[in-house]
Hints:
- By secondary structure, this protein is mainly α.
- The chain folds into 2 domains: 10-33 and 44-209 and 372-401, no CATH class; 224-347.
- Helices cover 75% and strands 0% of the residues.
- The protein contains 14 helices and no strands.
- The two termini are 20 Å apart.
- Belongs to the NrfD family.
- Pfam families: NrfD.
- The chain crosses the membrane at residues 7-27, 47-72, 84-101, 121-142, 186-208, 220-243, 263-286, 306-323, 335-358, 378-398.
- Keywords: Cell membrane, Membrane, Transmembrane, Transmembrane helix.
- One of its GO terms (cellular component) is plasma membrane.
Amino acid sequence: MKSSTRLTKAWYGVLVILMALGGWAIIERIRGGLAVTNLTSTTPWGAWVAFYIFFVGLSAGSFLLSTMIFVFKMEQYEKIGRDALLVAILSMVLAMCFILIDLGRMERFWHALRYWNFTSILAWEVRFYVVYIGLLMAELYFSMRQDLIRAAKGSGWQAALARFLTFGSTDLTAASKQRDHRLLKILGSIGIPVAIFGVHGGTGTLFAVAKARPFWNSGLFPVIFVVSALVSGTALLLAIYVIRSKVMGREVDKEMVKSLAGLLTLFLFIDLGLEFYEFFVGAYGLQYTELATIETIFRGPFSWSFWWVQLFLGVVVPLFIFFHPRLKESVNAITLAAILVVIGILGVRFNIVVPALIVPVLPGLPWGYYYPTLVEWLSSLGIVAFGLFLYTVAIKALPIDTVEELREGK
């Protein structure tokens, strides 16, 4: 048995085990309701909401990076264009899974669409998600339609799937290709304001309008969400591109990786600056709840996630790598930095959700210290594994790689 086949089977095996554990946890969640979690009326949001905003951010960041290719013609990043759209779609799928299991009455998830409260941020948000996912799927389709037609001429299940998806079209003319590119540009242009103001800016707005939580109640919050989405999306795509290239035995485009690292550095600095002002302005007001929340982040039981995960692993180490004369030339070091940035942004999401809920909004109320239960952790692992499983199947079934990349892989 070839080593690549063994590796593939081992990969699927790990994913299936994690999905099975996650499936058990989700069944427990369905049977026991939110009583199987450590969520309370004091701390109604926890790990699942943190993962939800993390994956919405990954999606928005990946999509915005794809617009640089399909809308603004930054062709140096073309190799990750379809990957960016696929990751954006799957990230939204995972985000919806996380928020679904967080609902008190899961079976009523469709009420948000059926009953529209015009003044509800969440009601608008749900509709933006539907439009956004539709745009992503259409854009991914038109980005690979030409390669689907070529793949349809082959044999096997991938070719059969390609024939189904092309709806019998065999048009590979230059005019057809030009039409697809024009549609991509239109869809991407529509998607930019939807992603910025509706999807991730809107997710940030869900927190920003919470008047009772001064740490969230800031006009800067939606902007920070968008910028940190660019940070996490760029980092994830960089890491995925390098890992996939190495696993498939392809040559890594070092110049593209270094260019993405440069973009990531820029986004990281902007995000840091915005975070600084968020803390500075909040502390300057000397409001008790805001100061208590900041103190909880800096010195509370979860302060390790701020200092070590969010700042040290997510910022200090990656920036050291990006500016070190030798390390910044190493693809492996850059990839490690990108992975650490993604982990750091996950820490950011937890530090947004949990500490602000720990501090009581009225004197005498209990502090809302919260630790995820085994059910919460296992269900989260299972959902993430589900996303990785879908991604692995998708890149095998669909022409996510450009024709040039496929040639390089031979």
